[in-house]
Write a structure and sequence with these properties.
Blueprint: H1 3-19, E1 34-35, H2 36-45, H3 52-61, E2 67-69, E3 75-78, E4 100-105, H4 109-115, E5 125-127, H5 131-139, E6 144-149, H6 151-156, E7 162-163, E8 169-171, E9 179-181
Amino acid sequence: MSKKLLDETSKFLSYVLRHEPQTIGLTLDSQGWADINALISGAARDGRTLDRVLIEAVVASSDKKRFSISADGLCIRAVQGHSTKTVELQFEEKNPPQSLYHGTAKRFLESINEQGLIPGSRHHVHLSEELATATAVGQRYGSVVVLAVAAQQMQEEGFKFYQAENGVWLTELVPVRFLTTL
């Protein structure tokens, strides 16, 4: 299976499992699960060829572990990053490390310095424990800037943190006072 096919399929799965399931007639439950057979059928109606082998290869090969398959093998979901209002993933609250990181493009820095980190169309702000991961994320959007987040201090002041099963840290927002530009 080619890397190009895996990458294209991963992007398609991210789109329909995080943001626009209705574009292929797919329904997600409140925890983001979709029936794999319905996903395959919906993709076919959209002119895409998907099968179980390809889906499982994308899940297994994703270095960011964006997707998971249910224990019974019948359903798939994106583990975080949803913007669709029908999905309200329930994450267990966790104690964050002292600092977390957020990578973005320099062109967004002025807005961030005014309003902090906000989730935009997503449910949560995404943060990383690793500086290198935050840098890689930021590079996707242009000239990179990495922000350090005083996560432990935020928690001490009542902010809640969660961690998705792929290791991404989540919070509802990060006020400016907890940010340092690196």
